[in-house]
Amino acid sequence: MNYLKFLFTLIFTISSFNVFADESKDLKQNDNDVKVENTESAEETDSEEDEKVTVESYIEENELDSKPGFLNLLVNKENDDHFLILDTKDLNKEFIYFTYFLDAPQASGQFGGALSDGSILEFRKFKNDIALYKKNTKFIFDDSNNISQSILRNIQEAFLGRFKIEVDDEEASKVLIKVNSIFLSEMLTSISPNIPPEYMEYVDLNVGKLDKSKTFINKIKNYKKNTTVDVVYGFFNPKPRGGSVDAVADKRFTFAKVRHLFVEMPDDKFEPRVADQRVGYFSEKVTNLSSYDYVNAVDLINKWRLIKKDPNAEISEPIEPIVYWVENSTPEEIKPFVVEGIEAWNPAFEKAGFKNAVVAKIQPDDAEWDAGDIQYNVVRWSSSPEPQFSGYGPSIANPKTGELIAADIVQEFNAIKYGYRLRKIWGYDEENDPLRQWIVSLTMHEVGHTLGLRHNFKASWLYDTHEIHDKSVTGKAHISSVMDYDPINIAPEGVQQGNFFPHGPGFYDIWAIQFGYTPNLSSEARKELLAKSSLPQYKYGTDGDAMGSPGYGIDPRAKRYDMSSDPVTYTEQRIEIIHNKISELPEIFGSEGSTYTELRAAYNGFIESKGDFLRVYQD
Q1: Where, residue-wise, is CATH 3.40.390.10 in the chain?
Q2: pTM for this predicted structure
Q3: For residue range 212-244, what is the model confidence (pLDDT) as tens digits?
Q4: Over the stretch 34-44, which tens digit does the pLDDT of each residue have?
Q5: What are the start and end residues of every segment in region (Disordered) (predicted)?
Q6: For a Cys-Cys bond, which of 28, 149, 305, 484 suits 459, CB 3.0-4.6 Å?
């Protein structure tokens, strides 16, 4: 055995020696040839340097159409190739990314107006290419602790893609890369609805797989602080399940129009504020893995950067107010109600030390800007075949700090039609108009979300069944927060009608804005403010607490579509009101100009409302 081992070793050694000996011999014999080849290579290099391609010459030669702005994108209109110019100073530089759905079949689980969570991206040099990374911002380390030097962290960032450098212009300190693959795939985010198999039977439309042949970049717009790239993603499912879906022409062939939104990273002068579970704010979670504290994670609330013009004044206008533009898609007669709903938040900000903190403006028809520019927060309207909501208030926040950067509120045209139906059923006058109060309340709710506020489903427990109809007690808000889901408030027979809907900030709303926006909130002032959370008017319970069905949730006060501190009595009164009003519907909608469709919609609305209230009994 040892002999065989020795033999194989000897054979390998001899063979190796011969091979390298032959190579060495050949190299010596061809030494002159090698020198000649090196000379030719040097000449070629000099020639290449003389004719080196620059970014400018490449653009001219390929007739690329430049779209300058935040991201310097270019397009070849003949073959639809898209390119990106990166300054070397832009490498290893963070920017923020969001996905915004412009159009999608709602039956698939997606819808126009939906906004993804934000992430932070970064281009870096990777060998001879450019790479795109998604950073993990959920964890931090304190450099003063030696544990921060550990390489054993078990935290990953995402390596999204690698791109060949088409032009490396060293003199101009720029590189040019082709970026089709970034947008024509699901590299940046998952476009297909992520529906678990066990829930697929509840989905009316399964779009199937991405069809790359029908996926294309539709529009690019560049602005000072952001870039938008609109992409149409085609999908194909040869055998879709279920019946027809009116909103799509053919269930086998569907699409989603998606806006990829790239945003400049704000400066580091924003002062984050740590959240507290007693006040409902959206937040960004950050965990300090070098902290000795048992609880080493903090949530930073989503809030706008408001700075007083006069820092010494008790109440001052901000240097830059939060401005919302009422889009020109808003029906003319509704615009004053939307403006009122936006600016109704100002009394709350006055308690936080700001005057005219929130400003509403009307977009003119000849405006040269559009909602894609994040410098404009917009309240817009949509008219969908089967709307899933009356309003939707998404916002864009810096994932690292919670600073709010932009907002884009979408409200459904169906909500306006609902308001007109309420007028017809319950009547109205200038002082008490259900349409006006409903639009103001809806707008306040969605604006509240874009100010950082979450739902508060305990807000309806503030007043009893008598006080809730008394305006001298309630003022404009008969619940403690417009961030609740509240039904129209109808007084029983013989009781004077109070507010139909809350149309001003409640006690909780004012308190929450104080917590989030009071400048330089000291630890003592913070503690004093939060101590009020035990009072009835500051109670808070959000989506995770809400009792939406029997056995779900632990606190019956946190409930959608209930009303008053005695919801059972209120429900009994409400069901009686519904029964009486249903009997009047044929007369109400029997006048000339009314239709059976209107009557049926009103009837169905009452039945649905009755179901909402009966769930109070179930829970």
Answers
A1: 283-565
A2: 0.87
A3: 999 999 999 999 999 999 999 999 989 887 777
A4: 333 343 444 44
A5: 31-53
A6: 484
